[in-house]
Specification:
- By secondary structure, this protein is an alpha+beta fold.
- The chain has four domains: 194 residues, Histidine kinase-like ATPase, C-terminal domain (Heat Shock Protein 90, 2-Layer Sandwich), CATH 3.30.565.10; 118 residues, 2-Layer Sandwich (Ribosomal Protein S5, domain 2), CATH 3.30.230.10; 147 residues, 2-Layer Sandwich (formyl-coa transferase, domain 3); 87 residues, Ribosomal Protein S8, Chain: A, domain 1, CATH 3.30.1370.
- Helix content is 34%, strand content 22%.
- Strands 5-4-3-6-2-1-7-8 form an eight-stranded mixed sheet. The protein has a five-stranded mixed sheet with strand order 9-10-13-11-12, with helices on both faces. A four-stranded antiparallel sheet has the order 16-17-18-22.
- It is elongated.
- The structure holds adenosine-5'-triphosphate and magnesium ion.
């Protein structure tokens, strides 16, 4: 048999490589912008026509190229950024594969004008489908000006696969954001079909985010800062209340490179658990600076994936950094519990020595999430815990609140402190204004944390015995009930299988009405089905949430709540770990600032 294997011509090899690297106009935009950054540009202008299908032009004031380099830059595997295999683990540039320009030139008509700052004349070069059309010296600005025309002109199949101009433009804007947001030192602009879309002046990270996403972000961001021996995390997260229903502004960078990393995304998202609705997505703009020897970026042609030597370590640091930022900065900082003057007066009338204000030294590094639950923090227990930890977070000071609204308080001490509005809201004065608490949501938070403790085995659920009660489920649901049997027991249900898909319930949680048993069990099964596939799935959280929501629906309205009961609820709520957010992520507590009330009163 004659030999049949041949080396492919460069133009074909380049087209094959281009298939991986340049999937759409936005991929070319990314590569060109990254080249400008690598060239040290402090100014980068991107000009687009017809969603990049007709023209993508990038003008930079970076290093520029000599005539020979300009020609070389379009060869495959030609790069100035690495020269040996070891360099792959010391990469500090965006590019290193030496194939972006070769790929682009294989599938488009490219013109480049480039001049190093120290040279008087530059080079102008035209290349089309990997074929050099012309190269000559020319007058041009220092830096590089590259035009990519008619992308995929020789690959009609690819061209036909492109989406609408709107969709392709969206991809381009996204790539523009990914590069520009993490390089705030450089100024950037984007012009599409003659219209200026972005003009970003150089500045800090936060002002760059604001430049891209709008002024409103000034109030929405919380700083994240974490330094360890191996890495530094720097950036911002969106406050939980601004989490979105769509997976929007989630930007994770490693050494200034945008990357996708499901595991680290989980580390960040998980830090928001319970603070945002389960179907919402937190925003983040976070950069990990790490020694390049600790990572491998040579995984995928688009260079958006990275392996860490010790991923679990990075996960842990990231998770802690985000949690700490939320804990330090966000938890309704306007809430303070310094009591009203009337109550302070009442307290000062007590015989001396009765009040012993705890001595607390303030720890500015305090992170509420690190606090381990001790027996006293169980909101279901009869002696309420001190709220020192909580107060330290919000006020940095300790108030006598524990003394006058503790469980053993006498009625006079809460007299006039709490007011019930429409059987729905508890109103109470705090130093910064009027605090409003949603009664039902407060209940569900208290129950939720109580159930969570039951599920983690910290306290035992109390039970009431029933006349055996039969319940039937569909085969799928019955399977779920069987799999949750142990957990249901911890919540106070005593359930035995009966026949194929039936169950007999012999005991139920003490706080549940017999008539609600079926509805509560169904709710638990339904929630389990809904969230079990979720990456963030935590069986205990889901069960406790379902159970608290189900019970909450049956809670008596507040029209008969005495002040003592309100004070009790108040204390129990603020003994919770996350008192201001309901298990479904909605707000429990709000404060109308005194200044706002004063404004309302003005003529
Ligand atoms: N805007 C620019 N200014 C100065 N030099 C450039 C510019 N763009 C490209 N170059 C030079 O051309 C070379 C080839 O660019 P190309 O994008 O093809 O490869 P790379 O950036 O080295 O690696 P990668 O394929 O991963 O992007 C670069 O190594 C760089 O030396
Ligand atoms: Mg490159």
């Amino acid at each position: 048999m004659s030999n049949i294997i041949k080396l492919l011509p460069d133009s074909v090899a380049n087209q094959i490589a281009a298939g991986e690297v340049i999937q759409r106009p936005a991929s070319a935009v990314k590569e060109l912008l990254e080249n400008s950054i690598d060239a040290g540009a402090t100014r980068v202008d991107l000009i687009i026509k017809d969603a990049g299908k007709t023209l993508i032009q990038v003008i930079d004031n970076g290093a520029g190229m000599s005539a020979i380099d300009a020609r070389m830059s379009f060869e495959r595997h030609a790069t100035s950024k690495i020269s040996k295999a070891d360099d792959l683990f010391a990469i500090r540039t965006m590019g290193f594969r030496g194939e972006a320009l070769a790929s682009i030139a294989a599938i488009a008509q490219v013109e480049i004008k480039t001049r190093p700052h120290e040279d008087e004349l530059g080079t102008c070069l035209k290349i089309e489908g990997s074929t050099l059309i012309s190269q000559e010296s020319c007058q041009c600005a220092a830096g590089t000006n590259i035009m990519v025309k008619n992308l995929f002109f020789n690959v009609p199949a690819r061209r036909n696969f492109l989406k609408s101009n709107t969709a392709e433009t969206r991809h381009i804007v996204e790539e523009f954001i990914r590069v520009s947001v993490i390089h705030p030192d450089a100024s950037f602009s984007l012009v599409h079909n003659g219209k200026l879309v972005f003009k970003l002046i150089s500045g800090g990270f936060k002002s760059r985010i604001i430049g891209l996403f709008g002024k409103a972000y000034d109030q929405r961001l919380l700083p994240v800062e974490q330094k360890t021996d191996i890495l530094t995390i720097h950036g911002f997260i969106g406050k939980p209340e601004y989490a979105k229903k769509t997976r929007g502004e989630q930007y994770l960078f490693v050494n200034g490179r945008f990357i996708r990393h499901a595991y680290l995304h989980h580390a960040i998202a998980n830090a928001f658990t319970e603070l945002i609705p389960s179907d919402a997505f937190p925003s983040y703009f976070l950069n990990i600076s790490i020694d390049p020897h600790e990572i491998d970026i040579n995984i995928h042609p688009t260079k958006t994936e990275v392996n860490f030597k010790d991923t679990r370590y990075v996960y842990a640091v990231m998770h802690a950094a985000v949690k700490q930022s939320i804990g330090k900065n966000n938890l309704t900082p306007t809430i303070d519990f310094t009591v009203e003057p009337a109550i302070e007066a009442a307290l000062s009338e007590r015989p001396k020595g009765e009040i012993s204000a705890p001595q607390i030294t303030i720890d500015p590094e305090y992170n509420p999430f690190k606090t381990k639950t001790s027996g006293g923090r169980n909101p279901g227990s009869p002696s309420w815990p001190t709220t020192q930890d909580w107060q330290k977070v919000f006020t940095g000071e300790v108030t006598p609140r524990e003394d006058h609204v503790a469980a053993d308080q006498s009625p006079e001490e809460t007299q006039g402190r709490f007011f019930l509005l429409q059987s729905k809201f508890i109103l109470t004065g705090v130093r910064s204004g009027l605090m409003i608490i949603d009664l039902q949501k407060a209940h569900s938070r208290i129950l939720y944390e109580q159930f969570l403790e039951q599920l983690t085995g910290k306290i035992k659920a109390s039970q009431q015995q029933l006349f055996p009660h039969n319940i039937h489920f569909s085969p799928d649901d019955a399977e779920i009930v069987r799999s949750l049997k142990n957990d249901l027991e911890k919540l106070g249900f005593v359930i035995e299988a009966l026949g194929k898909n039936g169950f007999v319930v012999n005991g139920i949680p003490a706080d549940l009405l017999e008539t609600d048993v079926e509805a509560v069990l169904e709710k638990i099964v339904e929630n389990h089905k809904q969230y079990a596939k979720d990456l963030n799935y935590d069986k205990n959280v889901i069960l406790a949430r379902a159970r608290s929501m189900a019970v909450n629906a049956t809670i008596k309205t507040g029209n008969r709540l005495s002040e003592m009961e309100m004070a009790d609820l108040f204390n129990r709520l603020f003994a919770c770990k996350v008192p201001e957010v309901a298990p479904d992520g909605s707000k429990i507590v709000t404060i109308i600032a005194l200044s706002d009330i004063e404004k309302l009163m003005k003529k």
